């Protein structure tokens, strides 16, 4: 029988009533002839409660014990969903990460899945005709036999990795939205749901700020070519509506030049004024930042007004901004900059589309349109299938709407 | 170094603040030179919440999934206590039942501990100098690799079994009372805390209604001769007060004839009137009840008024009363009784003391004292170190107080 992985997030399992609704979705797919593995998150709010207790108990924050406490949330949901399925006459059993096992690295709190042994789950399908209800977000580091977690949103990753391990036909990610949109509908009411989007585009969109899926889960889907369907868990289980299929580029018939517009407020700008313009200067700045584990994103270099020095602008994640400034000030003597100027009220707006590969001048069109609206571009980065501009955050909505219209993404 | 097991129940770990207080108790014993394993229950109220969800999710009640959901409560506490200890500079790690492992029978929901492998915990003591924080109440059925629970109050049992497995010098049970009393202080304000009580007496007291310890844990303590100390977790950790040591009879210097008075409202009386007085009649009544898994406790048989039949009175647990009546009525034809009369407003009052072995007439004294107060005795059972009387529940307090004074247990 074909296999299906279905994943339900925290809001979809927030109460026992909603868990029953999830069970109805599962039963529909069972009735349609699938062997089903369901991956569940903790009941919405539970993880925050558990994390709050951990923080209260210890400022030292041993990630091993953090994982023990937090992984309990998914354990509860998996048992309850198995029970709700049984109540509907569907055979089901729960699986914790250590039981399957889902083997991970030792990186407690943000472990990476190394391998999944699907044998037990597949035996459950063939021998017992039972649904596997799998606790998402968690695994085991086998050498130490300790519980690990994958970090926030890790249940998406659990689901896609499991789909690859049991060679599922598809991985359905049920969420509180009905798919992937051309951009954030809260900003652009004319945003459209995409029927299909390629792995590559989805990866860029997730990396550049679209919150519907975790970056890591899209990477895994792309690597293992797991067709991944984003859809709503709040639909009537008897009449499910359409969502967005993340799939191979070749499986998408009509391809737009630009598929979506993303934005991220999680960027802070740092400008170093009057840096000595000599070889090796970039290394003296970016090596210490890399050693401090700070990701530098956009970089722009312009000649200063005095022509013997240069001004260097780059962005870092907002969360690392204070730390980045401290690192740079520590190394001021080597770098020899005159002044450090920072800005956290900036936003990165990006346009993504595999069509950019074959169309020239796509970005240039955007620069002109933004300039026409009086929006100043602080920095630019481009790659094969996307470009990003850094602008003042006050212009976020205007910029996103402008680009959304510019590339013909507005709903008819 | 000598080893100590400390056990804290749900009210002692109800909040992160209280968990910190528990950590202080543990640190005191570490500073005193012990290697410590701590067994914890779920935060008070959590187990009820989880059980409520299970009941809501399914009326079918798969005990395997019940165990998955409910065992999560102890997992949370174990992680939080490990963190709180670390915060105080005490090395600690959590252990779930499946990690140790605590191997149990397959009786999900009320599994019995078969064996405990203490190797990992002992290695933690010697190699890492770390406290083992153990989730109580849970274990693993190894052939299926499924999580099991020991049933309500099972954490006491976990603690005593662990103490036996790691050959601890003592098992300290921290609870919301400061020890074992001569009787329930809510009924008899003159009740006294016992400094010591023998395993045998404690087993009878727990079986006969004293709620301070689970029967199974006392059985284990007696079987493995684990000195078990019942004490308060709400004392100032810096100045702990005395509790009650459950130990060998030989270690108790001054032995009273009667050590304690217990009572249990968990009894229901059934009287079958005019049963044919012929051989095999007892079997026709008690075999069907045994097959329905109903424990019959006190049995009394008297000749009926018509002299050719007999009246048979016995007690069953209140929870099984309705079921027992149904079983008996089903078998009415074989048993040939005329009438079934039941009473649930009865109570069993018991006096316990190893001194009864060497003193005659202890029970007789009680029958007279109760009769003098106008209390009618419905049934009597006696054994080597205790006797019990079944009376109308309206007389509970009067009977307990009367016996407590009669045997010289009142506080000076």
TrEMBL record, chains A, B:
Residues 270-354 form the ACT domain. It catalyses: L-aspartate + ATP = 4-phospho-L-aspartate + ADP. Its EC number is 2.7.2.4. Pathway: Amino-acid biosynthesis; L-methionine biosynthesis via de novo pathway; L-homoserine from L-aspartate: step 1/3; Amino-acid biosynthesis; L-lysine biosynthesis via DAP pathway; (S)-tetrahydrodipicolinate from L-aspartate: step 1/4; Amino-acid biosynthesis; L-threonine biosynthesis; L-threonine from L-aspartate: step 1/5. It is an enzyme of class 2 (transferase). InterPro entries: AceGlu_kinase-like_sf, ACT-like_dom_sf, ACT_Aspartokinase, ACT_dom, AKii-LysC-BS, Asp/Glu/Uridylate_kinase, Asp_kin_monofn, Asp_kinase. Keywords: Amino-acid biosynthesis, ATP-binding, Kinase, Lysine biosynthesis, Nucleotide-binding, Transferase. GO terms for molecular function: aspartate kinase activity. NCBIfam families: asp_kin_monofn, asp_kinases, PRK06635.1-2, PRK06635.1-4. Belongs to the aspartokinase family. This is Aspartokinase.
């Amino acid at each position: 029988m074909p296999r299906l992985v279905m994943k339900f997030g925290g809001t979809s399992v927030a109460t026992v009533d909603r868990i029953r609704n999830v069970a109805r979705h599962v039963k529909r797919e069972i009735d349609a002839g699938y062997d089903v593995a369901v991956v569940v998150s903790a009941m919405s709010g539970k993880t925050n409660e558990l994390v709050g207790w951990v923080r209260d108990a210890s400022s030292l924050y041993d990630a091993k014990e953090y994982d023990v406490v937090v992984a309990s949330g998914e354990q509860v949901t998996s048992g309850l969903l198995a029970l709700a399925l049984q109540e509907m006459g569907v055979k089901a059993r729960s699986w914790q990460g250590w039981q399957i096992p889902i083997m991970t690295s030792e990186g407690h709190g943000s472990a990476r899945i190394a391998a999944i042994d699907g044998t037990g789950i597949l035996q459950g399908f063939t021998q017992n005709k039972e649904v596997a209800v799998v606790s998402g977000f968690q695994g085991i580091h086998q050498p130490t036999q300790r519980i690990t977690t994958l970090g926030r949103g890790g249940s998406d990753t659990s689901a896609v990795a499991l789909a690859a391990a049991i060679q599922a036909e598809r991985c359905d990610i049920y969420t509180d939205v009905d798919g992937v949109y051309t951009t954030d509908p809260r900003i652009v009411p004319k945003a459209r749901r995409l029927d299909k989007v390629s792995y590559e585009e989805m990866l860029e969109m997730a990396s550049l700020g679209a919150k519907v899926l975790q970056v890591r889960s899209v990477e895994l889907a792309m690597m293992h070519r797991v067709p991944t369907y984003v859809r709503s868990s709040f639909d009537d289980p008897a009449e499910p509506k359409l969502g967005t299929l993340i799939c191979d580029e070749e499986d998408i018939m009509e391809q737009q030049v630009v598929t979506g517009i993303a934005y991220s407020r999680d960027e802070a700008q740092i400008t170093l004024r009057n840096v000595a313009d000599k070889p090796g200067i970039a290394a003296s700045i970016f090596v210490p930042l890399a050693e401090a584990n700070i990701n530098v994103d956009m970089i722009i270099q312009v000649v200063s007004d005095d022509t013997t020095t240069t001004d260097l602008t780059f962005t870092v994640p907002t969360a690392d901004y204070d730390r980045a400034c401290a690192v740079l000030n520590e190394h001021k003597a080597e770098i020899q900059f005159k002044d450090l100027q920072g800005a956290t009220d900036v936003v990165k707006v990006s346009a993504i589309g595999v069509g950019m590969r074959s169309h020239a001048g796509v970005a240039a069109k955007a620069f002109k349109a933004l300039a026409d609206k009086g929006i100043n571009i602080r920095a630019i980065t481009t790659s094969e299938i996307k470009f990003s501009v850094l602008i003042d955050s006050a212009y976020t909505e205007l910029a996103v709407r402008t680009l959304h219209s510019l590339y013909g993404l507005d709903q008819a």
